[in-house]
Amino acid sequence: MKDTDSDWAEIAATEPYFGVLTDPAYLRGNINDEALERFWESGRRDLQWQLEILQTQYGAFKPRNALDFGCGVGRLTRMMATVAEKVYGVDVAPGMLEIARKNASQNTIYTDQVPDVEVDWINSLIVFQHIHPSRGTKIIADLVAKLSSGGAITLHVTIGREMGICRPQEDGAEVLRWDGEFYRPLVFTPPVGGMTMYDYDLGQVMVILNKAGIHRLTVQHTNHGGHYGVILIGKKA
Known about the structure:
- By secondary structure, this protein is an alpha/beta fold.
- The chain has helices spanning about 5-15, 35-60, 75-80, 95-100, 135-145, 200-210, and strands at about 65-70, 85-90, 110, 120-125, 145-160, 175-180, 185-190, 215-225, 225-235.
- Helix 5 runs parallel beside helix 6.
- The model has no long low-confidence stretch (mean pLDDT about 90).
- This is Methyltransferase domain-containing protein.
């Protein structure tokens, strides 16, 4: 299995903002104060409409503890800190956490470990797409096990992609076997610091959430450059 944690440590050291949002404006050589403000504003917008759906569909929402998994430099965590009393931003990349801590509010803790606490809100957006599903589904199950009664999730996973980007050339596969249905790399040298994309079995994710007591969900479809996904918004019974 590709070591995506080391990839993100490398990305954080070279292009921390572009690693979060792949827009040329956020490259280290291009980013300025105006672009940085757009970057933070995008986080506010991305979460605001999700919160509006959450409150419209499931009632008032006043979280105490919240968790932003794969927080990066804190693009979404900053918005979460204006809603929750306390927020944990969790990320594997030291370079991302270093930047996040420089911009942290008093009610925010940035860490590389998921805290052993009950939380009222779990958020993760454009993160699990970079984690191998055999590992990512276990992480999702561990996260929602920490969700309090009445707690909420805003969770994004990718579930498929257009044929033209089915096998990116930079995925590290050099020699393949193709049986008409699947391809299997026979010689595989994954690039260091590459943004590998993975697709999840939505049925498996839904079963994990159902077993955790999250029975009602609002599903919002996403399409990021031909990578299709869903944002699952709901509350634990």
